[in-house]
Each structure stands twice: as structure tokens, then as C-alpha cells.
Design brief:
The protein is an all-alpha fold. The protein is built from ten helices and no strands. α7 crosses α8. The radius of gyration is 19 Å and the shape is elongated. The N and C termini lie far apart (60 Å). The N terminus is likely disordered.
Amino acid sequence: MQQAEKKQRGRPASSSATSHEQILDAVQAILTEKSVRDLTIEEVARRAGVGKPTIYKWWPSKFALVLDLFERQKIPTVRAPMEATAEEVIRLQVATTIEFLNGFFGKVARELVAEAQSSPDLLREYQERYIMPRRAVSHEVIYKAITSGEFRRDTDPDILIDMIYGPIYYRLLIRYKELDTAYGDTIVTHALSTVKKEKHS
């Protein structure tokens, strides 16, 4: 089933692309009013003005629909300019992530994570399509910093990524305090203090 899902994924060609975008637009409109759990293929088809078979031609489930919507509007990938330090890039990545999660897609992310707890397939898809690609970009930045001497040689990239983004997603999911860029900056300062090389005069 997983192979079938991957085979169907992606934007269709020519005139079908219009219906494809209309369907994803309908999903986004519905999710401004309802949760991912309450989303139905029937309502998506009605809002998009297409038949259910058209939807199932491209997406095997409502979760595949939501993941495609999420991927269409995902957080922009922030890569390092040649002259930027790793710290500058990480701070920019964190600020961009927080800005994204404070909008509509923060709501969607919370609901996807909640649904994924009882759906191993959804959890795997969410990890593969969203989490892992973003971690790969962060790995690049950290390895570059280790090589250049900005970060200590014993820096563990996975641990550092968890130290930075774990608190962000904790605050997103639990919502006991506001998730803002000042909080993100503070997290980065504390996390990087454990890996930055001391400068000797």
C-alpha cells in the first residue's frame, strides 16, 4: 500500500492540475473550519466540485490529502549563504519555523501529530515527507560548522537538533505559553552554548 501511495503522489499534468489545486484549496478551506479528524473525502469532493473517484485517483486517503496540502505550503527550506555562520542560519531557520507554526499550518501540524499517534502509516509519512528532509538540511549546517571549527568536533547533530526543535514543538503541542521568535532565539542561545568553541585571545 505504501508503494501505491508514493506512486500516486505528485502534481498531475496539463488540465488535471487545475482540479488537483482546487481539491487542495478545498481541503485548506475545510480545515479552517474543522479538524483533520472531522475532514471527509465527501465534503472535499463537494467543495472542489469533483467526484470522489477523481480524488481517489491521486490520494488514497484523507491523510494523504492533508500531507500534500502541508507539503505544498511547508516551511521554506533555509539553506546557508556561503558567508553566513551556522549560528546565523540556525537562528533564521528557527524564526522561519516559528512564524510558520504560528499560523494555519501550526493547527494542521498539531492535528496531524495527534492523528499519527494511532496511525503508524501516517506517522511514517509525516516523518518521511516533512520531518526528515528538514533534519537533513539542519545536519548540513551543523556538519559545516564542525568542519569549519565553529562548533566543537564532538557535537552530535541529532542531539543538537532535538535540543533546538524539541522545545518548539513541545510549546506548539502543549500551548502552555506563547510560541514566539524571542523564545526561539533563547532556545538557540542556550543550545549553541553547549557546542560553540571558545575563542581564545
